[in-house]
Design a protein that fits this description.
Length: 432
């Protein structure tokens, strides 16, 4: 047993649309998050194993048959607004690239009864301040950043021994919610306008936000209900934020910390599907070799290309938008502005309010022996070296050995091996 038990259940499978093509198996970085089986008709299907799913969203983008989808709180959010429930909103900085009409959207939401709207860039500023204070108090500490909930889920499930390295500073979204509740006396439920499927996991663990309203879903809601946004534009209900606006970019946290500490702190960054292997390597690396900060994100394009984005602006469009934000945040304000801002934070905030704990998820990770692997190979009629190393990948696994492991762990089935199916067909042909 590795890693209390909390099933994500955010990502779902429509079994009627699943063709058993194995694209989801191939793209998923977790070997136990998909279970391949045969239904009553003998068709091969693949379903989610919620205990092992980290809500990375790779299977959704991989599926060409729309068999994979995710659940968020958009419908519940609008239904509660209609019932008269007063809700405040926090909006991720990536709203600037994903919902270009965001100011008009804010006006519409205000008209529907939304109370306050805050920019998560503000929480990102607080998050950076928290990291600077924590690193100042713990100069020898080596930490892994945690604004990405998929990273947190991965460590809680698969690498619980690395939880001690997770930054104790809350994510920008959580910092924004804490600021609103603790320092602005906002008692209304908080909905997050988010680019991320996995944020629902974070909200479930921290209880700081009640709704994960994703960019893709809110755009779909507006289109489905033929809602025409008002021409009037609205802004956020607080003073302008600073460098935190750069958080959606890959390495955004690194750029923020480097702006204040320069080369005093070593920071490595990584994003995309390779991060999970890098985190495994991190756990095996001597502490003295590790950077002070390992800044990691699940999505290769950062939060601007998150798993629940409404559309994916091109690389140059994103950079153009955030270069303007950077210019305003750095060049129009200068270092003195931020020194004064953080002095204000020192006087105003209690760092402990912005820190969190993590809980390993206790799961039974199946252990397989060489004997189990051998039985799995035999079930595919692969009895010699050549047959066991065809590695065609049609089953969704990189190697035949990995397929045998999954059969041994009961998350895949021999009939899903195309070589076995071809050989079985040949045998039937010879018999006929």
């Amino acid at each position: 047993m590795i890693g209390g038990n909390k099933m994500s259940g955010i990502i779902k499978t429509n079994n009627n649309l699943c063709t058993g093509c194995n694209r989801c198996v191939r793209e998923c970085p977790m070997e136990l998050a998909n279970i391949t089986y045969q239904d009553e008709s003998g068709d091969i299907k693949v379903r989610i194993n919620p205990e092992m799913c980290i809500s990375c969203g790779h299977c959704i983008s991989a599926c060409k048959h729309k068999a994979r989808y995710y659940m968020d709180d958009t419908e519940r959010f609008f239904a509660d607004l209609e019932r008269g429930i007063k809700i405040s909103i926090i909006a991720a900085p990536s709203i600037r690239t994903n919902l270009p009409m965001w100011r008009r959207l804010f006006t519409y939401l205000k008209n529907q009864g939304v109370d306050k709207i805050y920019d998560v860039s503000l929480g990102a500023d607080i998050c950076i301040w928290g990291h600077l204070k924590y690193l100042e108090k713990n100069p020898d500490f080596k930490l892994i950043t945690q604004p990405c909930p998929v990273i947190v889920s991965y460590l809680e499930i698969y690498q619980p021994e690395l939880i001690k390295a997770l930054s104790p500073v809350h994510s920008p979204m959580a910092c924004t919610a804490i600021y609103m509740k603790e320092y602005e006396d906002i008692s209304s439920p908080i909905a997050a306008l988010s680019p991320c499927i996995g944020k629902a996991d974070e909200f479930s663990e921290t209880n700081l936000c009640e709704y994960n309203v994703t960019f893709a879903s809110i755009r779909e809601y507006l289109m489905k209900n033929r809602i025409k946004l008002p021409a009037e534009q609205s802004e956020f209900d607080h003073y302008k934020s600073g460098l935190g606006v750069l958080f959606p970019l890959p390495g955004g946290l690194k750029e923020n910390i480097a702006y204040f500490l320069g080369n005093k702190v070593s920071i490595d960054t990584a994003e995309g599907v390779s991060i999970f292997n890098l985190l495994n390597i991190y756990g095996e690396t001597p502490k003295e070799i590790l950077p002070h900060v390992f800044d990691v994100l699940n999505c290769a394009g950062g939060c601007n290309a998150g798993t629940a984005c409404s559309y994916f602006p091109n690389f140059f469009e994103i950079n153009r938008t955030f270069n303007k934000c950077r210019e305003q945040a750095i060049y129009e304000r200068g270092h003195t502005y931020y020194e004064n801002l953080y002095k204000q934070y020192d006087e105003q905030f209690d760092l402990d309010k912005f820190l969190r704990n993590y809980t390993p998820r206790l799961i039974n990770y199946p252990q397989v022996s060489d004997y189990d692997i051998d039985l799995a190979f035999k079930s595919m009629h692969k009895n010699d070296f050549a047959a066991q190393n065809i590695d065609c990948g049609a089953c969704g696994n990189e190697t035949c050995y990995n397929m045998a492991r999954k059969i041994a762990m009961k998350v895949n089935i021999p009939v899903n091996c195309i070589v076995k199916s071809i050989n079985d067909a040949k045998d039937l042909s010879c018999l006929s």
